[in-house]
Design goal:
156 residues, alpha+beta, SH3 type barrels, two-stranded antiparallel ribbon, 5 helices, elongated
């Protein structure tokens, strides 16, 4: 009887230990900045690329705390997947996932098909939208913009 109780207790403890074990996640976007604080306006302290594996902490308001190359920071929930991403070579090119911007816009219901339909249906001039989508500000420009605009960089 005591042995059965002991075995059941060990099985329960093992189950709890496995459930509490940290889970690895894969980066599912082409690349993403690891941020100093949980905000896209926060300073970048590192970078991850498609397929990289990270061990995130507890999700907090859409951001995971992670440590990458010895640097601790925050990654957006949209950049990570619980699925293990394995890159393999083959006859065809391997798709590299979606960019941060594509994930954000898709989350708002906007994608290439919607944009194409709106261009075809309306008389809207998308020249400046197309130009703006090609702008790639440098990290120091973002930090300066945030400071000059009195924008907080942490989780707002």
């Amino acid at each position: 009887m005591k042995i059965k109780v002991l075995l059941v207790l060990l099985a329960v403890c093992a189950g709890v230990a496995l459930a509490a074990a940290p889970k690895m996640m894969s980066v599912q976007v082409e690349s993403s900045k690891v941020r100093e604080k949980p905000s896209r306006l926060s300073k970048a302290v590192g970078e991850v690329k498609y397929g990289d594996r990270v061990q995130p902490g507890a999700l907090q308001n859409g951001w995971y705390p992670v440590t990458v190359n010895g640097v601790t920071g925050w990654l957006s929930e949209s950049a990570l997947s619980t699925k293990k991403i394995v890159m393999s070579s083959g006859a065809n090119d391997v798709a590299t996932g979606a960019s941060d911007e594509e994930v954000a816009m898709a989350g708002k219901g906007f994608n290439q098909q919607v944009e194409d339909k709106m261009k075809a249906d309306g008389k809207l001039d998308y020249t400046w939208v197309d130009k703006m989508s090609k702008f790639e500000p440098q990290e120091d420009e973002i930090v300066l913009f945030r400071a000059q605009g009195s924008l907080v960089g942490g989780g707002q």
